[in-house]
Amino acid sequence: MRVFVAIDLPEKTKKKIANLQEKIKHTPNKIKWVDPSLIHITLKFLGETDEKKLDGIFEATCEVAEKFCPFFIKIYKMGAFPNLECPRVIWLGIKEGSSQLAQIAKELEKKLFKQGFPREKREWVPHLTIGRVKQLQDRESIKRAIMREKQTSGGEAKIEAITVMQSRLTPQGPIYTPLQKFPLQGKRGG
Fold first, then answer.
1. Which of 6, 17, 33, 57 is deepest in the core (most CB within 10 A)?
2. What range defines the domain where residue 48 resides?
3. CATH number at residue 30
4. Higher pLDDT, 24 or 2
5. Among the options 16, 40, 44, 111, which is catalytic?
6. Range of lowest pLDDT (22-26, 90-94, 128-132, 149-153)
7. What is the mean pLDDT of the chain?
8. Separation of alpha carbons 18 and 21, rounded Å
9. What is the SS3 assignment for 136?
10. Total count of domains within the chain
11. Is 40 an annotated catalytic residue?
12. Does residue 145 lie in a domain region?
């Protein structure tokens, strides 16, 4: 099964993100927009995983969740990976709370490495993927749309848990199923 570890967002936040997507949807480019109900912060993508490893994944995630207390994030700033000149992924950044997210991701990385999962080669950057550019037909139109919303706010969200998710790919799009949710239980920020 395909597995990843993520932070899910409250419905209110997902609705705000849907409104932001609407503001930049109208370009001649072919963009696959992420269904707002599926938007999350990926902490660690594990890929195809043997079900026998799930207990170890749950244990590692639980240990990390026990170290951190709930906190708020502020969704702020729109951009593109790798850059605005050659956009492949359209994202929203995290302003407040990004250091806590980075600490959680770093702890997960350590714990899951001990469970046999390879370390990430790239630096982890907290973000929300909201669209993937499938065909770039008018670079300037997408650049203008992102720049227009660059300093936009996607609101605040209280982060209260880490979720281990299963991802099933279908022709209609991915289906995410929460396998187990681990509440943040620490006494301070980690």
1. 57
2. 2-183
3. 3.90.1140.10
4. 2
5. 40
6. 149-153
7. 91
8. 5
9. coil
10. 1
11. yes
12. yes
Q: Which of 109, 89, 107, 94 is nearest to 44 (CA)?
A: 109
Q: Each residue of 116-163: pLDDT tens digit?
A: 999 998 889 899 999 999 988 888 888 888 888 777 777 899 999 999
| 165 beta partners | 4, 178
How far CA 84 is from CA of 41, 58, 124, 162, in Å, comes to 21, 37, 19, 31
Burial class from Cβ neighbours inside 10 Å (0-12, 13-18, 19+) for residue 74 reads middle
In this prediction the pTM is: 0.89
Q: For residue 49, what are the CA distances in angstroms to 45, 53, 77, 166?
A: 10, 7, 34, 10
Residue 184 — pLDDT band, cuts 50, 70, 90? Answer: very high
Return d(Cα 89, Cα 11) in angstroms, integer. Answer: 23
Task: Choose the catalytic residue: 14, 44, 111, 127.
Answer: 127
Catalytic residue list contains 26: no
Q: In this structure, is residue 39 part of a structural domain? A: yes
- Give ∠ CA 158-175-102 in degrees, rounded to 5: 35
Strands 89-94 and 71-81, by their bridges, are antiparallel
**Is 188 inside a domain boundary?**
no
Task: Report pLDDT for 190.
Answer: 45
DSSP, collapsed to helix, strand or coil, labels residue 140 as helix
